[in-house]
Amino acid sequence: MHNQTRRASVRTLAAMLLAFAVTLSAAPAALAAEGGSYPNANINVHDQAALQRGARLYMNYCVGCHSLKYVRYSQLAGGIGLTEKQVMDNLNFTGAKFGEPIVTAMPEADAEKWFGKVPPDLSLEVSAKGADWVSAYLKSFYLDPATNSGWNNTVFPNVAMPFPLWQLQGEQEAVMNPPENGQPATVRELKLAHPGSLTPAQYDEAVRDLTTFLAYVSAPDELVRSHIGAWVVLYLVLFTLFALVLKKEYWKDVH
User: Fold this and answer.
1) pTM for the full model?
2) Is the dihedral of CA 24, 29, 32, 33 positive or negative?
3) Could you say which of 18, 23, 43, 44 is the most buried, measured as most Cβ atoms within 10 Å of its Cβ?
4) SS3 for 212?
5) With respect to CATH, is domain 34-220 assigned 3.40.50.1220?
6) Using one digit for the tens of pLDDT, what is the confidence trace for 234-245?
7) Predicted confidence (pLDDT) per residue in 41-67, tens digit
């Protein structure tokens, strides 16, 4: 009777550990699914070179309108492997101090006047919409003279912002489906009408680097968590083995 109870307890503990492991492995997939059915961004926040290239792109093309107010220059330097001098000389265009947050120099009143609304802070953009969404968005701008900015986007229709990376990607034009059943025409595909300074393959890499950087600033502690994660798992395994051995000793006394 005691042996049956002991075996049942061990099976219950094993089932609980298995369920916990399955939950941990399923969580990232569930979060990624929220981003919609967009192509895989294929990013790796542990790729320090990609983070540095992405930071350079962001500071040159994005920070003029979009702040990263939850990240400080000092935190940025430590996270992507740059010195204070490298960051302040090459990535700081607003005159902010090393310990201050990354904010745009554009006054909010001017931004609202020019764009109709203040451009959003992008510190949590990947956390909110997913890396796949951000990557697809950056590849989906096309010329549209009907909009105020002259640009539109298939991922975010009627987006208010102009396309900041058009010099890199070039200018895309939309091939439209004809109107049907009283519904307006829809975009069938995008074609590159005027190439930019990068080839399509190079632009894809640039988008991957920029998305990687935005994924990092959305969760800068991810790098630290991943470093200690293996030790945490090892601790849990050793603790489980210790608990099983201790349980066996207790049940031996019950016999």
Assistant:
1) 0.75
2) negative
3) 43
4) helix
5) no
6) 778 888 887 887
7) 999 999 999 999 999 999 999 999 999
